Amino acid sequence: MKRLLLACVLCSLGAGVASAATITNGSFEAEDISPDSWRILGAGSPGLPGWIIGGDGVDVKHSAYYPASDGNQSIDLVASSGSGDIRQVVNGLSVGSTYRISFDYAANPAVRRGVVIRFAASIGNFRDAITVGTNTLTRGVVNWTPASFDFTAGNTSERLRFASRASGSASGAMIDNVSISLVPVPAAGILLLAGLGGLAAMRRRKS
């Protein structure tokens, strides 16, 4: 029975190691736009490796124009022509496991104070809209805010999407530093699984 308990614990721990899910080009550095300070990418453009661009396109911002949260480049989900979105399929998920998507967001400092800026984030069973504050904007200053949300994988692949919900502005929500991590099973949960395995073994012996 000791061997069985040990196996249960190792299997529970191994569930967290088995996942190799990653975000491709999460900091938007894969294609350097310098010496440009910003670049508009229309829907379907190949200029953002790892991501599919939809809607009215997006802007890539270089730190020479607005400081990125991570690296030298970030994304404005509003191109000058209107609201856009980016999405990619995240592979290597373990069905039933809980994952955390982390990212940083900010309002483009060019947005007029008081304008309501929103964007939506979605993957798997998670859907949410985020409102970005604009009342304290300072020209040229990007106020990055860290954010995260958890979702449970229903498939080995899920689509991650960020979409602008801006209202008529030529600039909108900026995002950067997108990553994914496995939410570990609490130690109590691992022990519970091991205990249940032990009880099952004892019942089989008695029967």
UniProtKB/TrEMBL annotation:
Span of the signal peptide: 1-20
Keywords assigned by UniProt, alphabetized: Membrane, Signal, Transmembrane, Transmembrane helix
Transmembrane segments: 182-202
SUPFAM superfamilies: Galactose-binding domain-like
DUF642 domain segment(s): 23-180
Domain of life: Bacteria
NCBIfam families cross-referenced by the UniProt entry: PEP_CTERM, VPLPA-CTERM
Protein name from the UniProt record: Putative secreted protein/choice-of-anchor C domain-containing protein
Biological source species: Aliiruegeria haliotis
Source lineage: Bacteria, Pseudomonadati, Pseudomonadota, Alphaproteobacteria, Rhodobacterales
